[in-house]
């Protein structure tokens, strides 16, 4: 009679096991260089790579901080511009059938179709092939998407007035002045405030603080315009007395 024949071994959960097998990764020596244990080998490498990129990104943000602009002012005209990764949608909304009464198409319908196609791609492309040449349809869609994003981003960058945008958002050091003074009252009652702002730091026109101009030079620009052509002639519509008050007021706006 052989040992153990006819016997059955039954485990009892009430009895603690004296010896537990250690959590040893599987032996992948049969596939050298092709696979490894997820824990701790693979995960440790991922953490190390992530830490290197994180430290590099933090150093980059310290060396080149985000450019800040002046606080929002409803009295000044300002054209907001999205970050670079949304410029292609910003450019798309400039076209006829994606803006105005068709704004829903450019803002919701077209981006929605693109994102839904991306989400459904695993279900639409079920082929096991990995080479792009053997997956013509998904490859063509992806190339078309990338080409469209590149073209729209390029068009947005080329057609945007970066100089004017920088001037609109520039941080200007304000000069303290009395808003109850006759000079400011004459200024706020004129059309000047629409271009130069309620705090005289600029908007569509340049700021009027620390100009270095005399009152006579300011009066001449108000009547005859600037030499650069940025301010045309004939914009002043008030009296000569008010113009004298405004010119003297602007001349006095100097940082201490």
UniProtKB/TrEMBL annotation:
Top-level lineage group: Bacteria
Membrane topology reported for the UniProt record: Multi-pass membrane protein
InterPro entries named in the record: Cyt_b/b6_C, Cyt_b/b6_C_sf, Cyt_c-like_dom, Cyt_c-like_dom_sf, Cytb/b6-like_sf, Cytochrome_c550/c551-like
Keyword Metal-binding: yes
Keyword line: Electron transport, Heme, Iron, Membrane, Metal-binding, Transmembrane, Transmembrane helix, Transport
Domain Cytochrome b/b6 C-terminal region profile: 28-154
Record's keyword annotation contains DNA damage: no
Transmembrane regions: 102-124, 136-154
Domain Cytochrome c: 178-254
Protein's recorded name: Cytochrome Cbb3
Source species: Lysinibacillus contaminans
């Amino acid at each position: 009679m052989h040992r153990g024949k006819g016997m059955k071994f039954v485990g009892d959960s009430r009895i603690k096991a004296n010896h537990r097998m250690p959590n040893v990764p599987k032996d992948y020596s049969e596939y050298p260089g092709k696979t490894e244990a997820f824990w701790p080998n693979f995960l440790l490498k991922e953490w190390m790579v992530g830490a290197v990129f994180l430290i590099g990104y933090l150093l980059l943000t310290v060396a080149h901080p985000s450019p800040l602009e002046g606080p929002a002012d409803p009295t000044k005209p300002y054209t907001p511009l999205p970050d670079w990764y949304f410029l292609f949608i910003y450019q798309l909304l400039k076209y006829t059938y994606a803006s105005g009464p068709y704004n829903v198409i450019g803002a919701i319908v077209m981006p929605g179709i693109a994102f839904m196609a991306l989400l459904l791609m695993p279900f639409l492309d079920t082929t096991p092939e990995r080479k792009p040449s053997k997956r013509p349809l998904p490859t063509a869609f992806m190339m078309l998407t990338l080409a469209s994003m590149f073209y729209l981003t390029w068009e947005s960058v080329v057609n945007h007035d970066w100089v004017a945008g920088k001037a609109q958002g520039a941080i200007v050091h304000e000069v303290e002045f009395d808003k109850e003074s006759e000079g400011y009252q004459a200024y706020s009652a004129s059309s000047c405030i629409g271009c130069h702002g309620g705090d005289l730091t600029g908007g569509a026109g340049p700021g009027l603080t620390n100009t270095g101009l005399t009152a006579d030079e300011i009066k001449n620009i108000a009547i005859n315009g600037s030499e650069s052509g940025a301010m045309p002639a004939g914009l002043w519509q008030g009296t000569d007395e008010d113009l004298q008050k405004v010119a003297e007021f602007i001349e006095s706006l100097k940082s201490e």
